[in-house]
Structures are given as C-alpha cells and as structure tokens.
Hints:
Oligomer: single chain
Order of helices and strands: EHEHHEHHHHEHEHHHHH
CATH class of the largest domain: Alpha Beta
CATH architecture of the largest domain: 3-Layer(aba) Sandwich
Strand content: 5-15%
CATH topology of the largest domain: Rossmann fold
Helix content: 40-55%
Structural class: mainly alpha
Strand order of the largest sheet: 1-2-3
Number of domains: 2
Radius of gyration: 22 Å
CATH superfamily of the largest domain: HUPs
Amino acid sequence: MERQIVLSGIRATGKLHLGNYVGALKNFVELSRDEAKECFYFIANLHTLTTHTNPFELRASVKDIVRDFLACGLDPKVATIYAQSSVPEITELSWILSCIAPLNLLTIMPHFKEKRDKLNESGITENAGLLTYPILMAADILCVKSELVPVGDDQAPHVEFARELAKKFNDMFGELFPMPKFFGGAGLRLPGLDNRGKMSKSEASSVIYLDDSHDAVWKKLKVAITDPQRVKRRDPGNPDVCNIFTFHHALETPVDDIARITRECKSGEIGCIECKEILAKVVNDILRPINERREQIIGLGAGYIDEVMHDGGLRARKVIQQTVAEAKELVGVPCY
Length: 336
C-alpha cells in the first residue's frame, strides 16, 4: 500500500509550550501512528534565521525541540525527524522555485507584512529572507512530495502558495509534484494567559512550557486573566469571554466538569480560583508523562539527540535528493 506523505515543521525560536502541543505536536503523534501515512517532521532552523541571529541559542533550541518531539511521543524510527539545515538540496529547490514565483504574491503574504512590521517597530530593517520565506516553505513541502501539510490556520496561505508553485512547475516542465493539501486539524491556537493574543514562546509569564513543573503551572494559572467583568467571588461570570474557559475546551477538560463550570460560573457558585485549580489538574495530567519521558531521554546521554537528528537527516536527504535531482533534470540544470 502506498502511504500518504505528511510534512510539517516548527521554527527553532525557543522552548515549546502547551500551545505547540495542542496546535501541532499532539496531531503530529497521531498522524505518525497511522500506518497509512509516512510522516516527515523538521526543525525549520533556516527559516529561523530571518528573525533570530544568535547561533548558540539556535543550536540549543533545535536540540530542545527534538527532545520535546520525542517526549511528546514521536518515535524517530517511525517518523523522520530532521533539521532543515541537514538537507542542502532544500535550498537548491528553493532557488528553482524562486525563478518561477511571482514577486507580487510575495509582497502581500500575511507573514511578510506581520514580521516586517514587528521588526520595524524594533528599529530593524526586514531582510530578503523574510520576503522569500514562502518559497523556502514551498520547497520544504514539495521536496518530499508531501500530500498533507498539518499546520496552523495562519500558515494556510503558505500552503496555498506551495500549491500554486507546484502547479506552475508541473505545467511548465512536466508532472513532478503532487498538490499538497492544508490539514486544519493542527489549527487550534491557545491564547496566552494574559489574553493578549496567542501563546508565544517569547512571553514567559503568559506561557505554560512543556517542561514546567506542577508548581510553575499553578503559579502562572493563579494570576491568569479571567472574565474582566467578574470582580468579586460571588459575581456571576460569562464563560464565553473567559480566557481560562478557552483552555478547558482546548485541553479537553472532562465534559461533566465543563458543564458544571459553565453552570456555576454563570450563577457565581464557583470562583475563578476553583476553576483554575480544575484546569491545573488537567494541564499537569498532560505534562506529567511528557516530563517523565523527557527525563528518560536525557538519561540516554547528550549524544542521543544528535544521533536521532543525524539518522533523520540521512533518511530525509535520501528522499529529497531524488526529488531535487528530478526537478533539476526537468528544468535543464542537471548535475553534470
């Protein structure tokens, strides 16, 4: 049976958090356990260079992310886990695609405008890599001939851009790339505990990291924003506008507990602290096995993660080299 190719990646911009688990990693693991699918998961460290330039932090971040991949349940013998920088043919394909990519589409991509504005606010001028980011992402997707791309909703325009480039390449040079499909199952986004946008790696106080202890989780949840209109303990609340209630749904708090919280919040029978205590148990039930597996992985020695990445890089490169060789042959620039 021919398996469906799945590909996704995470930028190496810091420690992974609960939002990464809910929005991506949980889904990665489930897909990898489907025998009908062949999964490629990479650390996008080349993409990271568009906004992060500290080489020491970047190296450490890549290894931390791979460690969390494994701690969350990914089996490196089943899913191919690799660093983007381990496969130079990806950038070779990116150049080929850049020669057929319409410039006007790049300048209106949401990612470019968002990152450019954030950099400009910090007094930093945007770089060319930020503009061509979608081309490199298209190369990531097409180099393994992926058919399914589980990413967040904010990345959907990039998957559509990859589809456009695949079609244009196939029309111009011959059929090579399948049409990748956006898989929205990874689109769930947890808000930050401060309720000011999605959970972000850079906002330590509003983020629950995957390696947070029981005490750290409670310390952060205890001061998290809830219904802004609820001032006193007995004030009736509105779960629909409460940040914590969003977490209950996203983390799959037991249905009976959600029903009780909804009823008693509206009537003022349950206070925000009690609601947070229930959530803390749910969060720690998720994190406990992850942290236990991480400790086991650390016990295997510092070289274990390097071995996983090296093996994954070799496996990924074997597939990608073949695809890029076919692409080069079709466009007339083979390796002589």
